[in-house]
Structure formats: structure tokens, C-alpha cells
Amino acid sequence: MNLFFLVEGRRTESKIYPAWLSYLLPQLQRVKNYRKITQNNYYLIDGGGYPSIKERIVYYIDEINTINQSPINSNYHHFVICLDAEEITHEERKNEIETYINAHEVKLQQTQLTIIVHQRCMESWFLGNRKIFTRHPQNPDLREYINFYDVYLNDPEMTGKYIFDTHADFHYHYLKALLSEKYQKLTYTKHDPGPVLEKYYLEQLQARIITDPTHLLTFQTFINFCQSVS
Q1: 67 backbone φψ class: left, alpha, beta (φ>0; ψ -120 to 50)
Q2: What is the structure's pLDDT at 71?
Q3: How many whole angstroms separate alpha carbon 28 and alpha carbon 80?
Q4: Is pTM beyond 0.90 here?
Q5: What fold, for 2-118?
Q6: In a 10 Å sphere around its CB, with 0-12 CB exposed, 13-18 middle and 19+ buried, how is residue 159 labelled?
């Protein structure tokens, strides 16, 4: 089994996905050159943000098709695109990507396409860890965030944007506040996701979707994909 991952950002996604894949698909070894795959490999590269990722999707579809036709290479079995929904729904973002691919008249020949959309961003997923939640925080901003939308009780992917310009901005600040309240000296940044990289953090998100199967539905698409190829 060989997988090609194209993730939206060079900061959060490029750190989180390799860490989580090491727990969920430990049989796969990451390669640095996507043209040099053998068996049970995966390649992961960022798409330079949005909308740059769309151009790279088309480019890498052509590259994957070429590699699969080469007699000296193993094939890629899955091309996995991971990106944020941001201010639209995950269904709309997925449809947008599919429409873009079709408009450029490119199609994977021997590889399955999987599109994983974070609703609204990866930080929305990270809010699903109930172990980091503090019911009566000291931070007044965090108290306001919880009063606006309680991510312990409600689906984190459905969190609004409060007084922030975008959903992603609010979810980022909500997560930072939760982690700072829980661990005091620990901070979360996109360059340094800290505890989110750890296996226990991922396990708490997996526990959340078992306890509340209607929560974190786009996170579930990622987990279900990993289970399907394991």
C-alpha cells in the first residue's frame, strides 16, 4: 500500500499528519522523494496554502499517473487531499475541489482519490479533546468562549466564529486558551502544535467520536480512511 498526501498548509498539517499516521498506520514508511516508492510507503507534501493547493492537485495527478505507468516503480494506491473548509461547509469545499479537477480534465488512472476536509480547520478537530477542557477557567476570555459555545458538550466542528473575523481564527484562539488554562506554561502555535502531536491526544479525539458518534464527522472521515487501508 502506497499513499500520496497533499495537505493544505506547511505549518499545522505538515506536522500533525505525519505524527498521527505513525500511530494509525505504523506499517507505512515516509519517503522523501515521491518518485521512489516501493511497498508500504507514503509521501506527504504541503500545497502552499489555499488556493495554491488547487494548482498542485492537478500537477500531482499527472505526476502520479506517470509514476504508475513506469515499469520500475510501485503504484500509488491512494491520493489523499487534506484541506480546510474555512468559511464554507465541508461539502461545498469538497465539491469545489472536484469541480476544479474536472474542469482541468485530469483523472487518476490507477489511484483512488480521497478528499478530507477539516470542518472548519484542524483546530476545530483539536477542540474535541475533552481532557483539556476546564469547566470554571480563570481566563476571562476562555469563560466567554465557553459561554458562547461549549465544545465539551457540543460538536466542536459546529463552533461559530464569535467576535472574530473567521471561524478558523476563533477556533485557534479557543484552543490556545484551553491548553494554556489546562497546562499553564504550555502554548499552542501552528509552528509548534505541542501536545496535539502526541498519541494520547489523538486517542482522546478517537474516544470522543465513539462516545458521541455525531460529533467531529470530518475527523471521522480521516479515521475511517486510515482504518480502510490499514
Answers
A1: alpha
A2: 78
A3: 15
A4: yes
A5: Rossmann fold (3.40.50)
A6: buried
